[in-house]
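Changelog entry: the DUF58 domain-containing protein record was regenerated in this release. Current contents:
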Amino acid sequence: MLKFVKAIYFHQRFFVGIFAIATIFLFSYWIAFLYPIAWILAVLLSVFSLLDITVLFSRNAINANRQLPEKLSNSDLNTIYITLENKHAFKVSIEIIDELPIQFQKRDFLQKLQLSARQKDTVTYGVRPVERGEYIFGKLNIYVSTPLKLIKKRLIFNEDQEVKVYPSFIQMKQYDFLAIDNRLNHVGLKKIRRIGHTQEFEQIKEYVSGDDIRSINWKATAKHGDLMVNQYQDEKAQPVYSIIDIGRVMKMPFNGLSLLDYAVNSSLAFSNIALKKKDKVGMLTFSNEPGNLVAASSKKTHLNQLLESLYNIKTAFLDSDFGLLYAWVKRSIKHRSLLLIYTNFEHMNGLERQLPYLKALSQKHVVVVIFFENTEVEALINKNVEGLPKIAHQTIAEDFSFEKRLMVKKLQQNGIQSVLTRPEDLSVNTINKYLEIKARGLL
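Regenerated C-alpha coordinates:
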Protein backbone atom coordinates (compact mmCIF):
# COMPACT_ATOMS: atom_id res chain seq x y z
CA MET A 1 0.00 0.00 0.00
CA LEU A 2 2.79 2.38 0.93
CA LYS A 3 4.52 1.66 -2.38
CA PHE A 4 1.26 2.44 -4.21
CA VAL A 5 0.85 5.77 -2.41
CA LYS A 6 4.48 6.77 -3.07
CA ALA A 7 3.98 6.19 -6.79
CA ILE A 8 1.12 8.73 -7.02
CA TYR A 9 1.99 12.30 -8.01
CA PHE A 10 -0.37 15.13 -8.90
CA HIS A 11 -0.23 17.24 -12.03
CA GLN A 12 -0.40 21.01 -11.92
CA ARG A 13 -3.82 20.75 -13.58
CA PHE A 14 -5.15 18.89 -10.49
CA PHE A 15 -4.04 21.68 -8.15
CA VAL A 16 -5.51 24.32 -10.49
CA GLY A 17 -8.83 22.45 -10.30
CA ILE A 18 -8.70 22.29 -6.49
CA PHE A 19 -7.94 26.03 -6.32
CA ALA A 20 -10.80 26.86 -8.72
CA ILE A 21 -13.31 24.75 -6.75
CA ALA A 22 -12.19 26.30 -3.46
CA THR A 23 -12.62 29.77 -4.96
CA ILE A 24 -16.17 28.91 -6.12
CA PHE A 25 -17.01 27.58 -2.64
CA LEU A 26 -15.74 30.85 -1.19
CA PHE A 27 -17.87 33.02 -3.46
CA SER A 28 -20.90 30.77 -2.89
CA TYR A 29 -21.10 32.33 0.60
CA TRP A 30 -22.43 35.45 -1.10
CA ILE A 31 -23.81 33.93 -4.34
CA ALA A 32 -25.93 30.96 -3.36
CA PHE A 33 -26.36 29.29 -6.78
CA LEU A 34 -22.55 28.70 -6.99
CA TYR A 35 -22.68 26.23 -4.10
CA PRO A 36 -24.17 23.25 -5.99
CA ILE A 37 -21.94 24.03 -8.98
CA ALA A 38 -18.90 23.81 -6.74
CA TRP A 39 -20.02 20.38 -5.45
CA ILE A 40 -20.64 19.12 -8.98
CA LEU A 41 -17.14 20.24 -10.03
CA ALA A 42 -15.63 18.63 -6.93
CA VAL A 43 -17.32 15.33 -7.69
CA LEU A 44 -16.23 15.47 -11.33
CA LEU A 45 -12.64 16.18 -10.32
CA SER A 46 -12.72 13.23 -7.90
CA VAL A 47 -14.21 10.91 -10.50
CA PHE A 48 -11.74 11.85 -13.21
CA SER A 49 -8.84 11.57 -10.76
CA LEU A 50 -9.94 8.08 -9.71
CA LEU A 51 -10.34 7.16 -13.37
CA ASP A 52 -6.83 8.43 -14.07
CA ILE A 53 -5.44 6.37 -11.18
CA THR A 54 -7.31 3.26 -12.29
CA VAL A 55 -6.06 3.49 -15.88
CA LEU A 56 -2.45 4.18 -14.85
CA PHE A 57 -2.21 1.54 -12.13
CA SER A 58 -4.28 -1.22 -13.70
CA ARG A 59 -1.15 -2.72 -15.28
CA ASN A 60 2.51 -1.94 -15.91
CA ALA A 61 2.33 -0.81 -19.51
CA ILE A 62 5.45 1.37 -19.63
CA ASN A 63 8.95 -0.05 -20.08
CA ALA A 64 12.15 1.98 -19.87
CA ASN A 65 15.82 1.11 -19.97
CA ARG A 66 18.96 3.21 -19.57
CA GLN A 67 21.77 1.97 -21.82
CA LEU A 68 25.24 2.95 -20.66
CA PRO A 69 28.48 2.39 -22.62
CA GLU A 70 30.90 -0.19 -21.23
CA LYS A 71 33.13 2.73 -20.24
CA LEU A 72 33.05 6.51 -20.51
CA SER A 73 35.78 8.62 -22.10
CA ASN A 74 37.19 11.34 -19.88
CA SER A 75 36.87 14.96 -21.12
CA ASP A 76 34.72 13.86 -24.09
CA LEU A 77 30.98 14.00 -24.73
CA ASN A 78 29.56 10.51 -24.15
CA THR A 79 26.07 9.56 -25.31
CA ILE A 80 23.56 7.89 -22.97
CA TYR A 81 20.49 6.17 -24.42
CA ILE A 82 17.08 5.72 -22.75
CA THR A 83 14.65 3.43 -24.57
CA LEU A 84 10.91 3.76 -23.84
CA GLU A 85 7.92 1.62 -24.80
CA ASN A 86 4.23 2.47 -24.37
CA LYS A 87 1.94 -0.61 -24.27
CA HIS A 88 -1.17 1.43 -23.53
CA ALA A 89 -3.89 1.79 -26.15
CA PHE A 90 -3.76 5.59 -25.83
CA LYS A 91 -1.18 8.37 -25.97
CA VAL A 92 0.74 9.07 -22.76
CA SER A 93 2.93 11.94 -21.62
CA ILE A 94 6.34 11.04 -20.21
CA GLU A 95 8.66 13.00 -17.92
CA ILE A 96 12.18 11.60 -17.44
CA ILE A 97 14.29 12.51 -14.43
CA ASP A 98 17.61 10.66 -14.47
CA GLU A 99 19.72 10.70 -11.32
CA LEU A 100 23.18 11.48 -12.71
CA PRO A 101 26.40 10.61 -10.83
CA ILE A 102 27.41 13.03 -8.10
CA GLN A 103 30.56 14.00 -10.05
CA PHE A 104 28.44 15.93 -12.59
CA GLN A 105 26.77 18.07 -9.89
CA LYS A 106 23.61 18.29 -12.00
CA ARG A 107 20.27 18.08 -10.21
CA ASP A 108 17.93 19.62 -12.78
CA PHE A 109 17.80 16.86 -15.38
CA LEU A 110 14.36 16.74 -17.01
CA GLN A 111 13.19 15.62 -20.43
CA LYS A 112 9.59 15.49 -21.64
CA LEU A 113 8.02 13.63 -24.56
CA GLN A 114 4.81 11.98 -25.71
CA LEU A 115 4.39 8.39 -26.80
CA SER A 116 1.54 7.29 -29.04
CA ALA A 117 -0.26 4.01 -28.44
CA ARG A 118 2.05 0.98 -28.81
CA GLN A 119 4.97 3.25 -29.68
CA LYS A 120 8.68 2.81 -28.91
CA ASP A 121 11.15 5.68 -28.78
CA THR A 122 14.73 6.44 -27.75
CA VAL A 123 15.91 9.51 -25.86
CA THR A 124 19.58 10.50 -25.89
CA TYR A 125 21.63 12.95 -23.88
CA GLY A 126 25.32 13.63 -23.45
CA VAL A 127 27.58 13.72 -20.40
CA ARG A 128 31.15 15.06 -20.21
CA PRO A 129 33.09 13.63 -17.26
CA VAL A 130 36.18 15.51 -16.11
CA GLU A 131 37.44 12.99 -13.54
CA ARG A 132 38.55 9.41 -13.99
CA GLY A 133 37.09 6.75 -11.70
CA GLU A 134 33.83 5.00 -10.94
CA TYR A 135 30.54 6.77 -11.65
CA ILE A 136 27.19 5.53 -10.29
CA PHE A 137 23.95 6.43 -12.06
CA GLY A 138 21.03 6.43 -9.61
CA LYS A 139 17.35 5.83 -10.32
CA LEU A 140 15.85 6.34 -13.76
CA ASN A 141 12.54 8.01 -12.78
CA ILE A 142 9.72 7.89 -15.33
CA TYR A 143 6.54 9.88 -14.65
CA VAL A 144 3.58 8.76 -16.79
CA SER A 145 0.28 10.60 -17.26
CA THR A 146 -2.79 10.08 -19.43
CA PRO A 147 -4.33 12.74 -21.71
CA LEU A 148 -6.38 13.93 -18.65
CA LYS A 149 -3.11 15.02 -16.98
CA LEU A 150 -4.47 14.94 -13.45
CA ILE A 151 -2.36 12.16 -11.93
CA LYS A 152 1.21 11.02 -12.63
CA LYS A 153 2.49 7.54 -11.93
CA ARG A 154 6.14 7.23 -10.93
CA LEU A 155 8.11 4.26 -12.25
CA ILE A 156 11.73 3.46 -11.31
CA PHE A 157 14.17 1.61 -13.56
CA ASN A 158 17.91 0.78 -13.65
CA GLU A 159 18.77 1.77 -10.11
CA ASP A 160 22.49 2.17 -9.22
CA GLN A 161 24.22 1.38 -12.52
CA GLU A 162 27.99 1.69 -12.32
CA VAL A 163 30.31 2.69 -15.16
CA LYS A 164 34.02 3.51 -15.17
CA VAL A 165 35.50 6.63 -16.72
CA TYR A 166 38.75 5.90 -18.54
CA PRO A 167 41.31 8.23 -20.15
CA SER A 168 40.12 9.71 -23.43
CA PHE A 169 39.92 6.70 -25.74
CA ILE A 170 37.66 8.78 -28.03
CA GLN A 171 40.56 11.18 -28.61
CA MET A 172 42.84 8.20 -29.16
CA LYS A 173 40.50 6.76 -31.81
CA GLN A 174 40.20 10.17 -33.47
CA TYR A 175 43.96 10.38 -34.05
CA ASP A 176 43.98 6.71 -35.06
CA PHE A 177 41.41 7.27 -37.83
CA LEU A 178 43.19 10.39 -39.02
CA ALA A 179 46.47 8.47 -39.18
CA ILE A 180 44.85 5.75 -41.29
CA ASP A 181 43.41 8.36 -43.69
CA ASN A 182 46.68 10.36 -43.78
CA ARG A 183 44.77 13.45 -42.59
CA LEU A 184 46.73 14.14 -39.41
CA ASN A 185 47.72 17.55 -40.74
CA HIS A 186 44.05 18.58 -40.48
CA VAL A 187 44.43 18.78 -36.69
CA GLY A 188 47.92 20.30 -36.70
CA LEU A 189 50.23 17.31 -37.12
CA LYS A 190 53.11 18.09 -39.43
CA LYS A 191 54.90 16.11 -42.10
CA ILE A 192 58.53 16.03 -41.01
CA ARG A 193 61.19 15.98 -43.73
CA ARG A 194 63.56 13.09 -43.20
CA ILE A 195 67.22 14.09 -42.96
CA GLY A 196 69.41 11.26 -44.32
CA HIS A 197 68.10 7.81 -43.51
CA THR A 198 67.98 5.46 -40.59
CA GLN A 199 70.45 2.63 -40.20
CA GLU A 200 68.14 -0.37 -40.49
CA PHE A 201 69.01 -2.08 -43.78
CA GLU A 202 66.19 -3.72 -45.75
CA GLN A 203 67.44 -4.80 -49.23
CA ILE A 204 69.55 -3.98 -52.31
CA LYS A 205 67.60 -2.95 -55.39
CA GLU A 206 68.17 -1.47 -58.82
CA TYR A 207 68.60 2.28 -58.98
CA VAL A 208 65.62 4.26 -60.26
CA SER A 209 65.33 7.97 -60.85
CA GLY A 210 64.81 9.75 -57.55
CA ASP A 211 66.80 7.34 -55.35
CA ASP A 212 69.44 8.89 -53.09
CA ILE A 213 72.76 8.57 -54.90
CA ARG A 214 74.52 8.39 -51.52
CA SER A 215 72.95 4.96 -51.05
CA ILE A 216 74.63 3.45 -54.14
CA ASN A 217 76.20 0.12 -53.31
CA TRP A 218 79.35 0.09 -55.49
CA LYS A 219 80.23 -3.55 -54.85
CA ALA A 220 76.78 -4.71 -55.94
CA THR A 221 76.95 -2.31 -58.90
CA ALA A 222 80.26 -3.81 -60.06
CA LYS A 223 78.86 -7.33 -59.70
CA HIS A 224 75.59 -6.74 -61.61
CA GLY A 225 76.79 -4.16 -64.11
CA ASP A 226 73.86 -1.87 -63.24
CA LEU A 227 73.54 0.78 -60.58
CA MET A 228 72.34 -0.82 -57.32
CA VAL A 229 71.33 1.05 -54.18
CA ASN A 230 70.81 0.08 -50.57
CA GLN A 231 67.22 0.45 -49.38
CA TYR A 232 66.51 1.29 -45.79
CA GLN A 233 63.36 1.21 -43.69
CA ASP A 234 62.26 3.00 -40.58
CA GLU A 235 63.76 1.58 -37.44
CA LYS A 236 61.07 -0.33 -35.60
CA ALA A 237 60.47 -1.69 -32.11
CA GLN A 238 62.23 1.21 -30.41
CA PRO A 239 61.26 1.66 -26.74
CA VAL A 240 59.21 4.77 -25.99
CA TYR A 241 58.09 5.61 -22.44
CA SER A 242 55.50 8.14 -21.27
CA ILE A 243 56.71 9.30 -17.86
CA ILE A 244 53.97 11.17 -16.00
CA ASP A 245 54.64 13.40 -13.01
CA ILE A 246 51.77 12.91 -10.54
CA GLY A 247 53.06 15.42 -7.99
CA ARG A 248 51.26 18.57 -6.87
CA VAL A 249 52.36 20.65 -9.90
CA MET A 250 50.03 18.54 -12.08
CA LYS A 251 46.99 19.41 -9.99
CA MET A 252 46.55 22.78 -11.75
CA PRO A 253 43.11 22.94 -13.45
CA PHE A 254 42.29 24.04 -16.99
CA ASN A 255 38.78 23.91 -18.49
CA GLY A 256 37.61 21.53 -15.78
CA LEU A 257 40.48 19.06 -16.22
CA SER A 258 43.72 18.91 -14.27
CA LEU A 259 47.07 18.95 -16.07
CA LEU A 260 47.41 15.31 -15.04
CA ASP A 261 44.26 14.41 -16.99
CA TYR A 262 45.60 16.19 -20.08
CA ALA A 263 48.86 14.27 -19.71
CA VAL A 264 47.03 10.95 -19.30
CA ASN A 265 44.84 11.56 -22.37
CA SER A 266 47.85 12.64 -24.42
CA SER A 267 49.98 9.66 -23.43
CA LEU A 268 47.21 7.27 -24.45
CA ALA A 269 46.71 8.92 -27.86
CA PHE A 270 50.47 9.11 -28.42
CA SER A 271 51.02 5.47 -27.38
CA ASN A 272 48.45 4.36 -29.94
CA ILE A 273 50.27 6.24 -32.73
CA ALA A 274 53.63 4.82 -31.59
CA LEU A 275 52.22 1.30 -31.71
CA LYS A 276 51.04 1.98 -35.27
CA LYS A 277 54.64 2.91 -36.05
CA LYS A 278 55.70 -0.54 -34.72
CA ASP A 279 57.53 0.92 -31.72
CA LYS A 280 57.41 -0.43 -28.18
CA VAL A 281 55.47 1.74 -25.73
CA GLY A 282 55.57 1.79 -21.97
CA MET A 283 54.47 4.00 -19.11
CA LEU A 284 55.85 5.16 -15.80
CA THR A 285 54.41 7.43 -13.08
CA PHE A 286 56.29 9.07 -10.23
CA SER A 287 55.96 11.66 -7.48
CA ASN A 288 57.80 11.66 -4.15
CA GLU A 289 57.70 7.85 -4.37
CA PRO A 290 57.65 5.29 -7.18
CA GLY A 291 54.34 4.85 -9.01
CA ASN A 292 53.31 2.42 -11.73
CA LEU A 293 55.68 0.95 -14.30
CA VAL A 294 54.46 -0.79 -17.45
CA ALA A 295 57.34 -2.25 -19.43
CA ALA A 296 57.53 -1.29 -23.12
CA SER A 297 55.93 -3.69 -25.57
CA SER A 298 54.80 -3.58 -29.20
CA LYS A 299 51.85 -5.97 -28.84
CA LYS A 300 48.51 -4.60 -29.99
CA THR A 301 46.86 -5.78 -26.77
CA HIS A 302 49.39 -3.74 -24.79
CA LEU A 303 47.23 -0.64 -25.21
CA ASN A 304 44.57 -2.18 -22.95
CA GLN A 305 47.17 -2.70 -20.25
CA LEU A 306 48.21 0.96 -20.53
CA LEU A 307 44.57 2.02 -20.36
CA GLU A 308 44.01 0.07 -17.14
CA SER A 309 47.19 1.49 -15.62
CA LEU A 310 46.22 5.07 -16.47
CA TYR A 311 42.62 4.61 -15.37
CA ASN A 312 42.88 5.49 -11.70
CA ILE A 313 46.11 7.43 -11.15
CA LYS A 314 45.72 10.58 -9.06
CA THR A 315 47.92 13.51 -8.14
CA ALA A 316 49.82 13.58 -4.87
CA PHE A 317 50.16 16.65 -2.65
CA LEU A 318 53.96 16.73 -2.42
CA ASP A 319 56.73 17.78 -4.78
CA SER A 320 58.02 15.08 -7.11
CA ASP A 321 61.47 13.60 -6.60
CA PHE A 322 63.40 13.63 -9.91
CA GLY A 323 66.37 12.00 -8.19
CA LEU A 324 64.15 9.03 -7.43
CA LEU A 325 62.99 9.05 -11.05
CA TYR A 326 66.60 8.93 -12.30
CA ALA A 327 67.45 6.00 -10.02
CA TRP A 328 64.30 4.14 -11.00
CA VAL A 329 64.84 4.64 -14.75
CA LYS A 330 68.48 3.59 -14.47
CA ARG A 331 67.46 0.41 -12.69
CA SER A 332 64.39 -0.47 -14.75
CA ILE A 333 65.00 0.75 -18.34
CA LYS A 334 68.20 -0.83 -19.66
CA HIS A 335 67.94 0.00 -23.37
CA ARG A 336 68.24 3.41 -24.95
CA SER A 337 64.71 4.78 -25.10
CA LEU A 338 62.66 7.87 -25.86
CA LEU A 339 61.46 9.30 -22.53
CA LEU A 340 58.56 11.73 -22.75
CA ILE A 341 58.37 13.38 -19.32
CA TYR A 342 55.04 15.11 -18.64
CA THR A 343 55.56 17.66 -15.88
CA ASN A 344 55.26 21.38 -15.25
CA PHE A 345 57.62 24.17 -14.20
CA GLU A 346 56.34 27.62 -13.25
CA HIS A 347 59.71 29.11 -12.27
CA MET A 348 63.29 28.78 -13.50
CA ASN A 349 64.38 27.77 -10.00
CA GLY A 350 62.11 24.73 -10.21
CA LEU A 351 63.74 23.66 -13.48
CA GLU A 352 67.28 24.26 -12.26
CA ARG A 353 66.70 22.03 -9.22
CA GLN A 354 65.76 19.13 -11.48
CA LEU A 355 68.14 19.88 -14.37
CA PRO A 356 71.05 17.69 -13.10
CA TYR A 357 68.76 14.62 -13.07
CA LEU A 358 67.38 15.41 -16.53
CA LYS A 359 70.94 15.80 -17.88
CA ALA A 360 71.90 12.47 -16.33
CA LEU A 361 68.91 10.78 -17.99
CA SER A 362 69.75 12.36 -21.36
CA GLN A 363 73.22 10.77 -21.37
CA LYS A 364 71.71 7.37 -22.05
CA HIS A 365 68.22 8.18 -23.37
CA VAL A 366 66.52 10.72 -25.60
CA VAL A 367 64.65 12.92 -23.11
CA VAL A 368 61.74 15.19 -24.02
CA VAL A 369 60.44 17.42 -21.23
CA ILE A 370 56.80 18.38 -21.84
CA PHE A 371 55.43 21.26 -19.79
CA PHE A 372 52.58 23.73 -20.05
CA GLU A 373 51.93 27.33 -20.91
CA ASN A 374 49.86 29.20 -18.35
CA THR A 375 46.92 30.17 -20.56
CA GLU A 376 45.54 32.63 -18.02
CA VAL A 377 48.84 34.49 -18.06
CA GLU A 378 48.87 34.54 -21.88
CA ALA A 379 45.30 35.89 -21.92
CA LEU A 380 46.31 38.68 -19.53
CA ILE A 381 49.28 39.62 -21.73
CA ASN A 382 47.04 40.01 -24.79
CA LYS A 383 44.52 42.28 -23.04
CA ASN A 384 44.36 46.02 -23.56
CA VAL A 385 44.68 47.39 -20.03
CA GLU A 386 44.61 50.84 -18.52
CA GLY A 387 45.65 52.03 -15.11
CA LEU A 388 48.85 51.48 -13.17
CA PRO A 389 47.74 48.37 -11.17
CA LYS A 390 46.59 46.50 -14.31
CA ILE A 391 49.71 47.48 -16.23
CA ALA A 392 51.82 46.16 -13.32
CA HIS A 393 49.91 42.84 -13.41
CA GLN A 394 50.45 42.59 -17.18
CA THR A 395 54.18 43.25 -16.76
CA ILE A 396 54.46 40.47 -14.17
CA ALA A 397 52.55 38.15 -16.53
CA GLU A 398 55.01 38.95 -19.34
CA ASP A 399 57.88 38.06 -17.01
CA PHE A 400 56.26 34.69 -16.27
CA SER A 401 55.75 34.00 -19.99
CA PHE A 402 59.32 35.03 -20.83
CA GLU A 403 60.62 32.72 -18.10
CA LYS A 404 58.81 29.78 -19.71
CA ARG A 405 60.60 30.48 -23.01
CA LEU A 406 63.90 30.75 -21.12
CA MET A 407 63.28 27.26 -19.76
CA VAL A 408 63.01 25.92 -23.31
CA LYS A 409 66.37 27.55 -24.19
CA LYS A 410 67.94 26.22 -21.01
CA LEU A 411 66.89 22.66 -21.84
CA GLN A 412 68.15 23.00 -25.43
CA GLN A 413 71.53 24.23 -24.19
CA ASN A 414 71.82 21.06 -22.14
CA GLY A 415 70.91 18.76 -25.03
CA ILE A 416 67.37 18.05 -23.83
CA GLN A 417 64.38 18.19 -26.17
CA SER A 418 61.31 20.08 -24.91
CA VAL A 419 57.69 20.83 -25.73
CA LEU A 420 56.05 23.95 -24.31
CA THR A 421 52.36 23.72 -25.10
CA ARG A 422 48.88 24.86 -24.25
CA PRO A 423 46.96 22.05 -22.47
CA GLU A 424 44.41 21.68 -25.30
CA ASP A 425 47.23 21.28 -27.87
CA LEU A 426 49.17 18.74 -25.83
CA SER A 427 48.36 15.60 -27.85
CA VAL A 428 49.08 17.19 -31.23
CA ASN A 429 52.37 18.76 -30.12
CA THR A 430 53.53 15.57 -28.40
CA ILE A 431 52.88 13.45 -31.49
CA ASN A 432 54.62 16.07 -33.65
CA LYS A 433 57.72 15.91 -31.46
CA TYR A 434 57.71 12.10 -31.63
CA LEU A 435 57.45 12.16 -35.44
CA GLU A 436 60.23 14.74 -35.62
CA ILE A 437 62.56 12.62 -33.49
CA LYS A 438 61.78 9.56 -35.59
CA ALA A 439 62.40 11.45 -38.83
CA ARG A 440 65.72 12.89 -37.62
CA GLY A 441 66.89 9.48 -36.46
CA LEU A 442 67.73 10.74 -32.97
CA LEU A 443 66.63 7.58 -31.20
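The mean pLDDT is 88.
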